Amino acid sequence: MRSNEQKILIADDDPVVLKSLKDLLATRGIDADTAIGGREAIVCLDQKEYDLLLLDLQMPYVNGHDVMRHIKQQDMDISVIVVSGETSFEAARDACSQGAYDFLRKPYATDELMITVHNALNEKQLEKHNKLIQSQLRESERMHRYMVNTSPDIIYILDRDGHFTFINERIETLLGYNSKELVGKHYSLLVHQNDIEVARYVFNERRVGDRASRNVEMRLKCKDDSSPRFFDTRALPIELSSMGIYQNEDNPKKRTYLGTYGVARDITERKIAEDTINFQAYHDLLTNLPNRALLRDRLSLAISQAKREEEQLAVMFLDLDRFKNINDTLGHVVGDELLQQVSTRLKSCVREGDTLARFGGDEFTLLLPKITKGKEDVSKIAEKINEVLKAPFVIDNNELYVSASIGISIYPRDGTNMDSLIKHADIAMYHVKDTGKNNYKFYSNDMTTPYFQNLSLETGIHKALDNDEFHLMYQPQINLKTGEIVGVEALLRWDHPEHGPITPAEFIPFAEETGQIVEIGHWVLRNACAELKRWRDAGLPEIRMSINMSARQLGEKAIVKHVSRILKDYSIPGHCLEIEITENTIMNDMDSVVHKLKALSKKGVYIAIDDFGTGYSSLSYLHKLPIQTLKIDRAFIKEVNMKHSGNSIINTIVAMAKGLNLNVIAEGVETQQQLEYLQEIDCSEAQGYLFGKPLTADVIMQLLIQEPYATPGSSPGLNGSRHRTH
Q1: How confident is the model over 438-452, as pLDDT tens digits?
Q2: Rounded to an integer, what distance in angstroms lies between the CA atom of residue 298 and that of residue 290?
Q3: What is the DSSP track for 444-470?
Q4: Helix, strand, or coil here: 189?
Q5: Partners of 243 in the β-ladder
Q6: Cβ(356)–Cβ(290) under 8 Å?
Q7: pLDDT at 711 over 70
């Protein structure tokens, strides 16, 4: 604070002295107020705050001593310099005893007076500054204590022996301890017994800087007599960060370890979220049973254990009889409820250590490790399953009956790896289906005989590729707002020279099983892109080409390079190609699939999930994949016409897609009612017989030359539209 900012009062009963002192201070840049006599001085002091008072003692009525007593009584923060004609020692002593800063006798020396004034002002300035700092420190400490005690984290300080010297109040809400009762106690009192070893190197951390502990997970124990809190168990998961506290930290030679400062964050909610995500990744959300991915993990482990211990295990493949009829007649809501009730009954049949999984749709798989009596043990469980399914299932006042066809394979007799055991159980299940259903059969080699008949089909596929027996058809995909063709889906057809047309349903599953689907998929990709290049070179409107890709094809190590090479060979931008994969393809090998799809997406290629909603897999993968499109399965679209419709499923998919900024294509649109419903819920695109059957490349070219396929609100492909194609 500068001197001209400090306030000075001069009190004297002699006007000449007042003016003299005021002028003297003015020459030094100090503007002072004056008061004639002690009474006026008291009035000034009561009305205004001063830093310094120059006070005469000998004044009538109210003298200087009276003024000083008033200052003391009112606890005024002011320095007093007595400038008086009294020369006695007693006067000076009395003035100083009343709190005077200094005593100057009249007549005074000018320099001495000014030095005393400046010293008093400087001292007052320092005193005020110190008070301000002390006030700020107290406020800072108060705020710091408030923040520490209201922090959502546990904050603590340990001494060098690991005993608490401070712990904030958050400990009470989280663990039930009063902070005061922990001071002086060792930190191990709070640590879960299984995490003591971790805490030994973290809780009382000695390191500092980058080497100090950061975000180390462990558990703390709740107080035994504390009331239940929002977490279920008596252990609290935390994330701990801590560092050492040192005296003379900047001097390594004199540095002394004093203790540890630490922060423990409650991560209960994060753990619950992680557990939920992990559960969804490995469980079927409808039935809460393990899904295919978890089954494969457990089956792989069970095979390894059985091999090591020379034991047997069994794989049961269950398919529900008549479920499709119930699902198609009463809708997916009833079908889902039925699957949930079936899974509950099936769980009552399994032993501890068995794994019941939902394989997909109405198929369940049961892993039975440690089969000591072979077929006898397995038969008892299969018979129990058929027995518990006999009672009716009551859903929406409907009595429903289902049974199960069960196929069984035994390790190591029927296979020594996952794929062979599941495949042979599947073959045995189909034999049950073919011989009356509602039964169980063990796999035997003669069951494979019909499958060997497919060798001719395998040979035929090789010849079809060599002899150009395959060809592509294209089904238009229509923008429901503009009526334009925005894309086509390439569909494979086979004209056998002897047997005529063979549907994809007849040969694609076999091609996937034998691995020929990879070569077929490459053929489709190359020929579809060649056709797309022809359309682009002709100057036709830019559309995307959608191509189905199987799990086998996507599993190829060089698939990304292969797609990139074809795009380059035909000068096609990535966004003009859309790869369609099914949910099951994703779930078979999540990590590998995600990596490859991200690599394709970086090339600009669009990714679509085909038959969305039928895989019964976790929706959490949608956030992990670089997908642009969801294709609603035709089974849901078909139910738009039914009394018990599955419209809510379609609504949910469309709403979810919008929320994730994804395109939606409805497959299998066949009626005007279905179209109007899809337009009403703002579905992006559609394809189906209402717009046209799969068409040849030349017909697609002609359609692209013409006007838009239909206008919004009209009936595409119907009512005499010029683009009617079926």
Answers
A1: 899 999 887 765 544
A2: 10
A3: -GGGGHHHHTTHHHHHHHHHHHHTT-E
A4: helix
A5: 261
A6: yes
A7: no
Sign of CA dihedral 590, 591, 595, 596: negative
Tokens at residue 467, please? 């002899």
Average pLDDT, the chain: 85
With contact defined as beta carbons under 8 Å apart, do 28 and 57 qualify?
Answer: no
Of the given ranges (485-489, 521-525, 610-614, 717-721), which has the lowest mean pLDDT? 717-721
pLDDT of residue 73 exceeding 60:
yes
Number of Cβ atoms within 10 Å of the Cβ of 541: 12
Kindly list the distances between the CA atom of residue 12 and the CA atoms of 3, 84, 93, 240, in Å, as whole numbers in the listed order: 22, 9, 20, 69
Q: CB of 683 within 8 A of CB of 629?
A: no
Query: What is the distance between the alpha carbons of residues 102 and 81, in angstroms, rounded to a whole number?
Result: 5
Q: How many CA atoms lie within 13 A of 577 on its CB side?
A: 31
Backbone angles phi, psi at 378, to 5 degrees: -70, -40
Determine the average pLDDT of the residues in 683-707.
90
Taking a C-beta distance cutoff of 8 angstroms, is the pair 629, 665 a contact?
yes
Number of residues assigned to the chain: 726
Listed range (84-88, 384-388, 449-453) with the worst mean pLDDT: 449-453
Q: Give all domains of the chain, ordered by start, each with its CATH number.
A: 3-132 (3.40.50.2300), 151-266 (3.30.450.20), 278-452 (3.30.70.270), 455-705 (3.20.20.450)
Q: Tokens standing for 434? A: 């073919």
Judge whether 187 and 164 are in contact, CB under 8 Å.
yes
CA distance 660 to 609: 14
Beta-strand pair 79-84/32-36: unpaired
Q: Give dist(CA 540, CA 248) in Å, integer.
A: 79
Q: Is residue 499 exposed (0-12), middle (13-18) or buried (19+ Cβ within 10 Å)?
A: exposed
| Gyration radius of the chain's alpha carbons | 44
Range of weakest confidence among 194-203, 252-261, 381-390, 595-604: 252-261
Contacts of 603 (CB under 8 A, 6+ apart): 560, 563, 564, 567, 574
Q: pLDDT at position 611, please?
A: 79
Q: Is the dihedral of CA 255, 257, 259, 264 positive or negative?
A: positive
Whether 572 has a pLDDT exceeding 90, the answer reads: yes
Overall pTM surpassing 0.70 (yes/no): no
- Bond into 694 cis (ω within 30): no
Other residues' Cβ atoms within 10 Å of the Cβ of residue 688: 24
Using an 8 Å Cβ cutoff, are 673 and 640 in contact?
yes
Tokens 């712990």 — which residue? 167
Angstrom distance (rounded) from CA 711 to CA 641: 23
The pLDDT-based confidence of 474 (bands split at 50, 70, 90) is very high
Q: Does residue 527 contact residue 469 with C-beta atoms inside 8 Å? A: no
What is the pLDDT at residue 491? 95
| pLDDT value of residue 719 | 33
> Are the C-beta atoms of residues 553 and 517 closer than 8 Å to each other?
yes
Average pLDDT score over residue span 491-516 = 82
Provide φ and ψ at 80, rounded to 5°: -125, 125
Cα distance between residue 288 and residue 282, in whole Å:
9
Phi, psi of 716 (to 5 degrees): -55, 130
Per the model's pLDDT, the better-predicted residue between 461 and 644 turns out to be 461
